[in-house]
Amino acid sequence: MKGLVGDDEILADGIPQIAFVGRSNVGKSSLINILTNSKVSRTSSFPGRTQEINIFLVNNSFYLVDLPGYGFARSSGLGREKIGELIDSYLFNSIHSQKKVVMIIDANVGLTDKDILMLEELEKFNKDFIIVANKIDKMTQSEYHKKINEIKKVVGEQHLIVPFSSKTRKGLESLSDKIFE
């Protein structure tokens, strides 16, 4: 497995790409680490740590692409506009083709306005994507059912929502099956 900073030559080599997108501090890097059973992707408790596209080649057969989080930018790093441009150029530029996009949301928070905008763009560009409702371990059973139903009302029945916990790994098998099908 190899971690690299985004590079168009790498992205154009024909190896399938699975992109991970979501707000800052929603668990993209943790999810990648769980899927690869490693600590390949740097995690942080501070939002906005990932400010570039990080690409991980797994078993020479696919890339996991860790995109920066949208909606937050540390003042010392790239601005929100630059991060937005970076995400847009990768996801919605016609030269890049993802096998699957994994949109991660915080199940406890639900869909934010920025999540809804991303959802609309993924639909507009006909991306094959799934929604991961992460951090379900931080909710009671009744909160869990309420939040998942609220998310389903917003995204509709046509989109798959996979409840997931990076901490307990609940939903990992289902998520792996859907990502790598």
Characterise the protein shown here.
It is a single chain. The chain is built from six helices and seven strands; from the N terminus they run βαβαββαβαβαβα. The chain is globular, with a radius of gyration of 15 Å. The protein is of the alpha/beta class. It has helices at residues 8-11, 28-36, 80-92, 113-124, 141-155, 172-179; strands spanning 2-5, 17-22, 54-58, 62-66, 100-106, 129-134, 161-163. α4 links the parallel β5 and β6 (129-134). Strands 1-3-4-2-5-6-7 form a seven-stranded mixed beta sheet, sandwiched between helices. 34% of the residues lie in helices and 20% in strands. It has one domain (2-179): P-loop containing nucleotide triphosphate hydrolases (Rossmann fold, 3-Layer(aba) Sandwich), CATH 3.40.50.
- Based on secondary structure, the structural category is alpha/beta
What are the segments in which pLDDT stays under 50 over at least 5 consecutive residues?
1-6, 43-50
Number of strands: 7
How many alpha or pi helices? Answer: 6
Superfamily (CATH H level) name = P-loop containing nucleotide triphosphate hydrolases
Q: Measure the end-to-end span.
A: 20 Å
Main pleated-sheet profile:
7 strands, mixed
Reported by name, the CATH topology is Rossmann fold
Any idea what the CATH architecture is?
A: 3-Layer(aba) Sandwich
The percentage helix is 25-40%
CATH top level assignment: Alpha Beta
Shape: globular
How many domain units? 1
Summed over residues and divided by their number, the pLDDT gives a mean of 82
Helix-strand pattern: EHEHEEHEHEHEH
Strand order of the largest sheet: 1-3-4-2-5-6-7
Strand content bin = 15-25%
Rg over CA atoms, rounded to whole Å, is 15 Å
